[in-house]
Design goal:
Helix content is 36%, strand content 14%. The chain is an alpha/beta fold and 291 residues long.
Length: 291
């Protein structure tokens, strides 16, 4: 077996659909073709939306597709202590600060500013008002028990790392493309949520390091996040994996499949008599790939 390690990392906040199947199968094919290892990671930091029944269902769906992986899987909810230590380190270095602003307050603050810049996910960039709080005022608000997120001070973070930041991107091929990371597009991004000591970005970066991930295969919708992840890797002293962002499975309207849009779950297809072979054949035809 080679030293190559990749991972499929779904969130158990709904049932898997064809888009997830495609990503999982792409990871499985890549690891098989390179005599590597495929890991399953359960990204369940969202304690409100993540449910045990979805977690069990995704294991069943992946097994139905013919996938196998080492047990036990890494579950992010088991590592909140590690995430907290990392966040505390960033705060201690002056690279993260508490933000007391709610999403509603941020949105209200730019309601009359239609040209306000937005991050790659479409959310308005944070103005930095809490970054400018005096130490005394910040301490008073913390002592009062106000809820807060932790935001990365992007300007200070960029000043700590060598620029430009770069990484290797392969997309669905075998030819590397040298990419320049643009973490600045995210502004002072949230890296610690109000309810848990992590954000998707922080937990993902730390878990990839902890699991020795060498190649990240994930949907093209996550490609813009790579620049931010590369920055966090540099700040933490972690190696940067190779990235391979794949096309998305689209619906009849040309839109990305999503749990929130009630895209047909794999388990529903299975219950209706559809075989795993048929699912693979359909994806092979639609996406022009071979398993």
């Amino acid at each position: 077996m080679s030293d190559l390690i990749c991972r499929f990392a779904p969130s158990p906040n709904g049932f898997l659909h064809l888009g997830h199947a495609y990503s999982a199968l792409m990871n499985a094919r890549f690891s098989r073709d390179h005599d590597g290892l495929l890991l399953l990671r359960i990204e369940n930091i969202d304690r409100e939306r993540s449910k045990p029944r979805f977690e069990q269902a995704l294991r069943e769906d992946l097994a139905w597709l013919g996938l196998d992986w080492p047990r036990p899987e890494r579950r992010q909810s088991d590592f909140f202590g590690a995430y907290r230590t990392i966040l505390d380190g960033l705060v201690g270095r002056g690279l993260a600060y508490p933000c007391f602003c709610t999403r509603g307050a941020i949105a209200a603050g730019i309601a009359d500013k239609p040209d306000w810049p937005r991050d790659p996910d479409g959310s308005p960039l944070y103005s930095g008002s809490c970054r400018e709080l005096s130490p005394r005022r910040r301490a008073e608000r913390l002592a009062a028990g106000e809820k807060f997120t932790l935001r990365l001070d992007m300007a200070r973070a960029l000043a700590e790392v060598a620029a430009p930041l770069s990484y290797r991107e392969f997309f669905e091929g075998e030819t590397a493309q040298a990419m320049t990371a643009r973490p600045d597009l995210w502004g002072d991004v949230v890296i610690g949520r109000r309810d848990v000591p992590a954000s998707y970005h922080l937990a993902c970066v730390h878990d990839d390091f902890a699991q020795g991930i060498t190649d990240v295969l994930r949907g093209l919708d996550l490609e813009p996040a790579t620049g931010l992840h590369v920055l966090l890797q540099k700040l933490f002293g972690y190696p940067t994996p190779d990235y391979r962002h794949h096309r998305l499975v689209l619906d009849a309207e040309g839109k990305k499949l999503a749990k929130s849009k009630s895209s047909i779950p794999l388990r529903e297809l299975r219950a209706s008599g559809v075989t795993a072979r048929r699912v693979k054949d359909e994806l092979s035809e639609r996406m022009d790939v071979r398993w």
